[in-house]
């Protein structure tokens, strides 16, 4: 008799757990799709261009050179100009510095 009660209790726990998981999954459907995790994928062709750019460089120089370059953001695809325009003219010592700043602005947007 105790085994039947334990089995019934375990089954109820499993059913409740399944209902919670379904609710969590349903709630996640409303979340925006994540931006690609791989930095090179996120920046697309711009990543390689940044690697071959002459450093040090400034925000204005990056906009002049690559402003029309389209990048993925959580709001869709936007040109680099829209991402960098709101910030002051900053100095970047390397591709990593420029990439990091751009990615931070994309994530914040």
Shape descriptor reads: rod-shaped
Strand content: 5-15%
Span from first to last CA?
60 Å
- How can the largest sheet be summarized? 2 strands, antiparallel
Mean pLDDT, rounded to whole units?
81
For this structure, the quaternary state is: single chain
Number of strands: 4
Low-confidence stretches: none
What does the secondary structure layout of this molecule look like, with pairings?
Layout: H1 2-28, H2 39-43, H3 45-52, E1 57-58, H4 59-66, E2 70-73, E3 76-79, H5 80-84, E4 91-92, H6 95-108
Antiparallel strand pairs: 1-4, 2-3
Helix pairs in contact: 3-6
Overview of this protein structure:
By secondary structure, the chain is mostly helical. 61% of the residues lie in helices and 11% in strands. The protein has helices at 2-28, 39-43, 45-52, 59-66, 80-84, 95-108; strands at residues 57-58, 70-73, 76-79, 91-92. The strands form two sheets. The protein has a two-stranded antiparallel ribbon. Strands 2-3 form a two-stranded antiparallel sheet. Helix 3 (45-52) packs antiparallel against helix 6 (95-108). It is rod-shaped, with a radius of gyration of 24 Å. It starts with a helix and ends with a helix. The mean pLDDT is 81.
């Amino acid at each position: 008799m105790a085994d039947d009660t334990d089995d019934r209790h375990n089954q109820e726990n499993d059913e409740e757990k399944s209902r919670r998981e379904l609710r969590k999954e349903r709630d996640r459907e409303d979340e925006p799709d994540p931006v690609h995790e791989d930095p090179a994928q996120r920046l697309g062709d711009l990543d390689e261009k940044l690697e071959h750019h002459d450093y040090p460089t400034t925000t204005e120089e990056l906009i002049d050179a690559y402003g029309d370059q389209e990048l993925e953001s959580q709001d869709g695809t936007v040109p680099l100009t829209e991402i960098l325009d709101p910030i002051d003219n900053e100095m970047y010592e390397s591709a990593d510095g420029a990439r990091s700043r751009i990615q931070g602005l994309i994530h914040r947007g």
